User: Which sequence fits this backbone?
């Protein structure tokens, strides 16, 4: 966590913000730079698998049917389980 901000640093930040906000073109340029910096590279976990150089259509799904761990319970099954559960006192 950064330390306390000095009065001079605060004045510089306020002056910069006022300068940028006073000029629409400068404001748009600053916004574009911020967006470009944030979106320059996707987050580590959000990468989309790319096709291999040999071709192909990406990851192949298994031909086996889904196992119970992959199947979501039906809404009726979830509701019935909730009705059978005893509530604790408040």
Assistant:
């Amino acid at each position: 966590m950064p330390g306390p901000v000095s009065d001079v640093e605060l004045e510089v930040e306020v002056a910069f913000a006022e300068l940028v906000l006073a000029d629409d073109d400068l404001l748009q340029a600053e916004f574009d730079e911020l967006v470009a910096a944030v979106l320059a590279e996707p987050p580590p976990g959000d990468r989309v698998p790319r096709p291999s150089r040999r071709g192909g259509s990406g990851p192949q799904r298994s031909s086996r049917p889904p196992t119970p761990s992959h199947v979501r319970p039906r809404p009726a099954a979830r509701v019935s389980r909730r009705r059978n559960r005893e509530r604790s006192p408040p």
